[in-house]
Amino acid sequence: MKRFTWWLIPLLAVIAIGVGSTCAYAQLDWHGSFSGDYRLRLQDEGKFSYAGQRFTLQPEARLGPARFTGEFGLELQGWPEVKDVSGLSADESIFPWNLEAREAYLEIYDFPLDRMDFRVGRQLIPWGAGDLVSPTDNINPQDLADFKDFGRRLGSDALQFTWYPGLVTVTAVVVPVFTPARLPAGWKDLFLTTELAGLSEDKIKVNLPAAALRESAFGVKLAGRIGGYDLSLSYLDGRYDLPEAKEVRGKVEQITNPMNPLENLILDEVSLFFPRRRILGLDFAGELSSVGVWAEATVFFPEKVTRVERIEMPDMSGMPVPLPGEITRETVVLDKPYTKYLVGADYTFPDGTYFNLQFVHGFPHERGAQELEDYFLFALEKTILNGRVKIVPLAGLLAVQDFDAVSKNYAVVLAPEVSWFPVDGAELTLGVDWIEAAGDSLFSRFRRDDEVYLKFKYSF
Questions:
Q1: Cβ(273)–Cβ(283) below 8 Å
Q2: CB of 335 within 8 A of CB of 305?
Q3: Radius of gyration, alpha carbons of the chain
Q4: Would you say 244 and 334 are in contact if contact means Cβ atoms under 8 Å apart?
Q5: In this structure, which of 71, 165, 173, 237 has its CB flanked by the most CB atoms within 10 Å?
Q6: Taken in order 126, 127, 130, 134, is the CA torsion positive or negative?
Q7: Which residues, at least 6 apart from 63, have a Cβ–Cβ distance to it below 8 Å?
Q8: pLDDT tens-digit readout, 312-323
Q9: DSSP state of 62
């Protein structure tokens, strides 16, 4: 967390002067929101799993054929982070906060060519047609700090060219420097195997790609409209935003079972890296007889990843069958292409009831054909009292690992809620997150995280 120190005062003064000068020449608009989120666990002695507020500002300035857009968030954590005696006198421990720039970019129209727009800076660049989850949406790294908040992404520092030559829109994106996904607390238990998750963080080495031109990501998309449907074809060359274990080191200090000399294996270190992959995507969206429909199919071509395990062995001279001082094992964990896809539909009934259903094969955190699971995402909404109250009696997902044994391999997440809009711009929401699961899927690990939550938001 960051502390408000004296040097920020002149910096804010300079920003204020700059904004004031800009207002004299450009049209400056401000939008934003203030929101809060309080979550109480139902199975953990009534402990809060989250409590905090967020203040978001979205400035936009226009001057001629150019525009600046930004989104800045100030997060105020709802409880102190006092870890020792010194924290009782530290502002950042008593009132922890964090400032984030999610977007901040300049866009110039008809530059460098006619019918071409140029955008540079930190941007959110969503590709694909999916609702909340999209296999084609891979430019921006995932923001998994709150894993239950599907679809959140971090902004990427990128250059984007959008060309409008005619019936087809051509978009080219370059991301010069790699940014990994933001992971939640306890991420080791979620994304590493049981053996690796037991290592302390000081034994886990993370190797980021070099900040060099050869590591830049590149993507291109062709988009158009045919027969009332929006279609796009895209290609992206970059890296996965979640790490993979490449090298594992361990040792066996004593052999107690000659038939299984690795029985007492102790892991010492794991090295993580971010594999490269190429992605080819196709998606469409439109309307069929008053029903909104969309679909995506995305093929991933990963680089071959071979995990190397180097195991130091004790003195084997007294054993019937001597073994080398070090055993090396290699396992291919990522190699062949695999496909993710989704199909979705939504419909608004004559009485205003809205229903949304989406089938997804492969969530964003999954890779490799053997890891892909099937998901059904659904939502039913009804607005009453002239739009002042919104009831969501049914919302959530069903995850299935194996359709041949569904009862032993599934996860159900239900999140019914009621929202009240007492005045324009204000929203209060009361809801429940309930999880039931069997098996070892990722969502199964949240089976004891049932929550009741209260949220508020004011937009201006």
A1: no
A2: yes
A3: 25
A4: yes
A5: 173
A6: negative
A7: 22, 25, 26, 27
A8: 887 665 555 555
A9: E
Distance CA 175, CA 165 (A): 24
Burial 358-392 (b: 16+ CB within 10 A, else e): bbbbbbbbbbbeebbbbbebebebebeeeeeebeb
Which string of b and e fits 97-109 if b means at least 16 CB within 10 Å?
A: beeeebebbebee
d(C-alpha 237, C-alpha 399), whole Å: 29
CA distances from 416 to 271, 412, 449 (A): 41, 13, 15
Biggest alpha carbon–alpha carbon distance for the chain: 87
Residue 317 has what pLDDT? 58
3-state helix, strand, coil in the chain (%, to 5): 10, 50, 40
CA distances from 126 to 131, 179, 232, 261, 431 (A): 11, 16, 12, 50, 28
Residue in this structure with the two tokens 């990843």, named with its chain if needed: 305
Burial of 10 from C-beta contacts in 10 A (0-12 / 13-18 / 19+): exposed
What pTM value is reported for the model? 0.88
How many other CB atoms sit within 10 Å of the CB of residue 41? 17
State the average pLDDT over residues 324-347. 91
